[in-house]
Each structure stands twice: as structure tokens, then as C-alpha cells.
Write a structure and sequence with these properties.
By secondary structure, the protein is of the alpha+beta class. The chain contains 4 helices and 4 strands. The chain has a 4-stranded antiparallel sheet, with helices on one face. It is elongated.
């Protein structure tokens, strides 16, 4: 394994040593490797959230005029990623299927908007 040299102020090193001990790491090297892996993972998650994704979002709900207004508001707010949708009547419920293309974070926000509406179920499939 290659060795890496690092300069830190005494204050930062003392804080790091304290966190290392409290976290149960046996050595600075072990703690630093873990911190670097977490740093890399966070960067990859941020990059992934910016990638353009395709998704099918299914929303099942009981027909209600107030829900139609809420849905219209959501659709308008996310018109940049909503490419199309279809609506189907299923006995006493309605199924809406959305085709979405956009950044993962926008798709997540779109789905969460429906999850906030009472008695509404959502499912997401990324393709």
C-alpha cells in the first residue's frame, strides 16, 4: 500500500485523535482510510444525483377533487421532468403512471411530493 504524507495543525490532529479513539479505530491510518472512503462515497452520491435518469412513477389514490388540484400543482412544478402521464380507473381507485426524465434529485422530489398527500401510494422504477 502506498504511504501518504499529510500536514495538519496541532488542533486538527488533536480533534482527529479524539474522534478516532471515541469511534473505536485502532490507528490513525484506519480512521483516515475510512474517512477517505466516506469522502469518496459522498462525492459519488452527489455525482449520481446529477445524472439524468429515466423513471416510471406509479401513483394510486382514491378519486377526490382536492387531490386533482394537488396533482396539477405538482405536475406544473415538475413540468421540466414530466414527459407524459396516463390515468386509469381501477374500481374505487385511480392509477396515474408518469414517464419522467431528469436529475435523480428532481425525480426524488417529485415522488416525495405525492408521498405527502394523504392516502396516496407511490412506486418508482428507474430504467
Amino acid at each position: 500500500m502506498p504511504m501518504v504524507s499529510l500536514q495538519l495543525s496541532d488542533d486538527i490532529l488533536n480533534k482527529f485523535d479524539e474522534v478516532q479513539r471515541k469511534s473505536g479505530y485502532l490507528s490513525r491510518s484506519e480512521a483516515l482510510r475510512d474517512a477517505i472512503l466516506k469522502f469518496i462515497g459522498e462525492h459519488e452520491r452527489r455525482q449520481d444525483s446529477l445524472e439524468i435518469k429515466r423513471a416510471i412513477i406509479s401513483v394510486i389514490y382514491s378519486p377526490d377533487p382536492s387531490k386533482s388540484e394537488e396533482f396539477a400543482t405538482i405536475e406544473h412544478r415538475f413540468e421540466d421532468i414530466v414527459k407524459s402521464f396516463s390515468e386509469y380507473m381501477l374500481d374505487e381507485q385511480t392509477l396515474r403512471i408518469y414517464v419522467i426524465i431528469g436529475e435523480h434529485s428532481r425525480i426524488y422530489d417529485f415522488t416525495q411530493s405525492f408521498n405527502k398527500i394523504k392516502d396516496t401510494l407511490t412506486a418508482s422504477t428507474f430504467i
